[in-house]
Amino acid sequence: MKIGGLQKISLIDFPGRIAAVIFTQGCNLRCPYCQNPDLIKITETSPVSLNAVWEYLLSRRKQLDGVAITGGEPLMQKDIIDTIKKIKNLGYEVKIDTNGTFPEILKKLIAGGNIDYIAMDIKAPPRNYSMIVGRKISFEPIKKSIELIMDGNVPYEFRSTLVSGFHDEKMIDEMARLIIGAEKYVLQNLSGYRTLDPEYTKLSPFNLKMMKHFQFIASQYVKTCTIRGGDAVGSLNKIH
Q1: Is 160 a member of any domain?
Q2: In a domain, 135, yes or no
Q3: H-assigned helices in the chain
């Protein structure tokens, strides 16, 4: 597995767990607002060796509860299933972050009981997907991954990073309709980070009033909608 970084401890990346975070190299998308641009391409040598990761995880089994694997796109890694099994064998719970474009791998992980939490990105409504991810892609794998997650028994959240000048009320409504009945939907406000396209770094984030408005729209379709980023924070349950 090509590893781009290791965060030794996190209290926020894996809900309810004290976790280490493994960052994998390589992504099949080119979202211009990507906040991990250094992880998009796979380099000849990994900044962090897999052996170093194993040594750390072995030494912290009494201090850590879980391991979050993010990227890049972790499900691109050819040995992702075997790696997760090894992490589980150390006694850790595992969270996976994914863009949803590899449903067959996701299906195997869910069916094998190898993951304990899933966070999947929803970038845009289907009609806008190729434009925002910087690649011409089919929405069908995204749709299949949504169905797998919602039909499975693994705790999960869907999340969307909102970009000013691109996302609007109609898009929020359309994205939330893709996941009607979902347990949790997180709206993340893009702000203050280096991005793949430097122009996106210059964008002003949505203000708190607008984020709460988007939250209100989405909360009509999902059980809980949370907003994060900038001055935005908080949860809103489905309106009955």
Answers
A1: yes
A2: no
A3: 50-59, 80-89, 103-111, 129-133, 140-151, 169-177, 198-201, 208-219
